[in-house]
Amino acid sequence: MEADKHEESVYIEALKILTPREIEVLELIGKGYTCKHVAEKLNLSVYTVQTYVKVIKRKLSVKGYRGLVLWYHKNWEG
C-alpha cells in the first residue's frame, strides 16, 4: 500500500511539472511511438519532439529514452 502511495505521488508531481503538450508526448512515447511517429501524430517536427523528450527526461530525472519508457510504465500507466 505504501508503494501505491509513492507511485501516486510521483504521478501527481509529474502532472504538476509537465505541460499538457509534454504529457501528450510522454504518453505516446510510453505507448511505443518513435519520435518520428509522435511528430507525425502531433503535427510537429522530429526535432521539436526530440526537444520535448529531452525536457521531459530532465524534469522527471530520467536517463535515456528507454528509461523514459520504463518510467511511464511504472508510474503513469499504473
UniProtKB/TrEMBL annotation:
GO molecular function terms noted in the UniProt entry: DNA binding
Keyword Iron-sulfur: no
InterPro entries associated with the record: Sig_transdc_resp-reg_C-effctor, Tscrpt_reg_LuxR_C, WH-like_DNA-bd_sf
Coiled coil, from the record: none
GO biological process: regulation of DNA-templated transcription
PROSITE patterns: HTH_LUXR_2
Keywords in alphabetical order: DNA-binding, Transcription, Transcription regulation
Keyword hit for Transcription regulation: yes
Name of the protein in its database record: Regulatory protein, luxR family
